[in-house]
Amino acid sequence: MRVHPLTTWLLLSPATILLIALLLVPVATVAVMSLTDWQFGAATLNWIGLANYAELWSDPVFRKSLANTLLYLVLVTGGAVTIGLGAALLIESDTQLRGFYRTAFFMPVASTLIAMAVVWQFLLHPSAGLVNHLLQWFGLMPQDWLNNRRLALYSLAAIGVWQMSGLAMVLFLAGLKSIPQDIRDAGALDGISHPWERFRRITWPLLGPTTLFVVTVCAIRALQVFDTVHVLTRGGPNKSTEVLLHTIYAEGFSFFRMGYASAMTVVFIAGIFFLTQVQHATMERKTHYG
Amino acid sequence: MPDIQISGLTKQFGATQVLKGLDLTVRDGEFLTLLGSSGCGKSTLLRLIAGLDQPDAGAIRLGERDLLQLSPSQRDCAMVFQTYALYPHMTVGENICTPLLMRGLNFWQRLPGMRWLSPAVRRKHAEAETSARKVAQSLGMDGLWERKPAQLSGGQRQRVALARAMVRHPSVFLFDEPLSNLDANLRQALRAEIRQLHDQLGVTFIYVTHDQHEAMSMSDRVAVMREGCVLQLGTPDEIYNQPAHVEVARFVGAPRINLLPGEIRGNSVWALGRQIGHVPQGQDGGACQIGFRPQMGAQATANGLEVHGRITGVEYTGAELIATVQLAMSEQSCVFCLHSSHPDLHIGETLRTRVSLDQIHVFAADGQRLAFHPQPVLLDAAA
Fold it and tell me: How many interface pairs between A and B have CB atoms less than 8 angstroms apart?
């Protein structure tokens, strides 16, 4: 059957229009804005070329923010993958209460992080918080988790791990399910029977595609951290928890430097884009064991 | 090596009893096939022999040794799976070497990097590779050494699986429907290869299949299983020509054996209104089943049970014609394989033939085979 070219375009138009209006135009606008010195609410703007990017390069706040974001990303991804995989292996090894553990671990993923951040604020409170009470009970020094310059980012990362490991666990559980029983049986006959050997020689390699996928998903999510920072520390103390999205937000909506914030956004989008590409590549690799 | 003795083996999964006190002796060096439809427990039995599952009751002994006390890797069994079960992240070479390295090296020697630190480990690796290459070569796989399983065809994968099983010279090979995922031509070729391999190695092969052609063409002996029990254990010839149970007769042979209702009066057997022979004294009277192979209807024989009826279906297969006939004297249909040069047969015509009494099997009401002595001369129905 021949399809009239106009019909094709007509059918494509809703998706095309939405894509252009909601995605391409805003991104293009941000990219163009990053080349100007536009201030929020200002009537005029000047074309300043790559000056915003040059400023970014030498801006200590941006550098600090980028470094913090990357550290946060590494901590959260590493923590979530480790805990998620450990939990998945434990849950998979026993059939009892499997549903309960799965739900319990997945709960933080489904809950709103803003609301949960408030709960964490109570838990980590220097004098009234449960965490410090527990530490004291064990005879350890209480800490000011969110206001100590050296601890604040790690505290936020711990909350990030708490939130993300459920997602990692669910993905790893799916990955474990897809490992054929026959391969484990063949391993048992070949002498791969010690749990550690089985993990090292069969489970972990066969989870490879899953792991790559989990790592990229967690990394993208970690890159987007904002809610906990905004609610709990506002980037402080002394910029020690300043992360990219929060810096962009502060530059744009507190200091009204929209051009500068746009330049940061472009860098941010580039990072996300890169991770997404990695993720796509890993998704395709999934079939390679076929 | 002694025989494998299996006695009283019972296995239950949830509420289903898969094996019900199964007894079986596997002779040293024989090719034994476990044949049965799906769910008969044949794969479960194989997994219990391999040690991948533990039975609820019963024993598996290899001479004096109690196999149930040994872990799968200590049992000296190698297994080939329907899904090949190759390690997808390893090359062909690594796959074949794995059983040797897992046995030859201890826990510390297997740690990553030990190959570079210890000459002993390096030597073990080299030895493993030499013998693995030899096995790969014998199966014609030497060109594929560096490939990953995903880059191989089904037949090549199954050869790698065979090589991985052969490389450590086990005393028992276990096959779990190894050819089921392959296409018909390849299946035929590999069937012959596996049989040759058995003749070469001279060790025990236990082969699970639901394909009667595989079972009949490859095995020294066949164990026909049904609902967790062995119905008959015998050579392919015994299984085909002297089925011990009506279910064995039904399962083996294509097209399926014809079964007609019969009756035992005293010690004489009646079918289609005629007395066709005797069974030994002491049988309960009453209903029985008589069976004859579709191929037997084609033979011209004087002393035969005459059957005739209307043809309701004709299938041409090249070498033969398969005719379905609605019998005139009974509700039953029978199937006959006739030589394809047979005069034209059409649906609706009448087919008249004789079934040689020597070829008739008689089964008691409980399905067991009865010794049957055919009438020397068939008497008329009226007599």
Answer: 69
pLDDT tens digits along B212-239: 999 999 999 999 999 889 999 999 999 9
Domains of chain A (ranges, CATH numbers): 59-289 (1.10.3720.10)
Residue B95 is part of which domain span? 4-241
User: Locate tokens 């020597």: which residue?
Assistant: B358
Beta bridge partners of B313: B324
CB contact under 8 A, B51 and A193: no
Question: Residue B291: enclosing H or E segment and its boundaries?
Answer: strand B286-292
Per residue in B310-352, pLDDT (tens digit) is: 999 888 888 888 889 998 888 888 888 888 777 778 888 888 8
Locate the chain A residue with the closest alpha carbon to B168: A190
Total structural domains in chain B?
Answer: 2
Regarding whether B172 and B205 lie in a shared domain, the answer is yes
Residues in B lying within 8 Å of A, measured between beta carbons? 47, 50-52, 71-73, 77-79, 81-83, 85-89, 98-99, 102-103, 107, 110, 150, 164
Nearest to B83 among A180, A187, A288 (CB): A180
User: With an 8 Å Cβ cutoff, is A94 touching chain B?
Assistant: no
Looking at B212, B241, B270, the residue that finishes a domain is B241
- Minimum mean pLDDT among A92-106, A158-172, B24-38, B169-183: which range? A92-106
Q: Would the pTM of this model clear 0.90, i.e. be above it?
A: no
Calculate the CA dihedral of residues B39, B43, B48, B49 and round it to 10 degrees. Answer: 140
Alpha-carbon distance of B334 to B319, in angstroms, equals 19
- Confidence class for position B298, pLDDT limits 50, 70, 90: low
Q: Are residues B218 and B262 in the same domain?
A: no
User: DSSP H helical segments within B64-150, as ranges?
Assistant: 92-104, 114-117, 119-138
- The whole-number pLDDT of residue B240 equals 93
Sheet with B361-363: list strands edge to edge.
B369-370, B361-363, B286-292, B258-265, B268-271, B274-278, B373-374
Q: What is the DSSP string of A102-137?
A: HHHHHHHHHS-HHHHHHHHHHHT-TTT-HHHHHHHH
Question: What residue in B sits closest to A194 (Cα-Cα)?
Answer: B107
Domain boundary among B241, B272, B305: B241
- Look at B77 and A189 and tell me if their CB atoms are within 8 Å: yes
Residues from chain A that touch B107, judged by Cβ atoms under 8 A, are: 194
Shortest alpha-carbon distance between residue A94 and chain B (Å): 16
Give contacts of A192 with chain B, Cβ < 8 Å.
98, 102
Omega cis (within 30) before B255: yes
Q: Would you state the pLDDT for residue B138? A: 86
Whole-number Å distance between alpha carbons of A68 and A150 = 12
Which chain A residues touch B72 with a CB distance below 8 Å? Answer: 185, 188-189, 193
For residues A182-188, average pLDDT: 90
Of B365, B307, B362, B361, the C-alpha closest to B336 is: B307
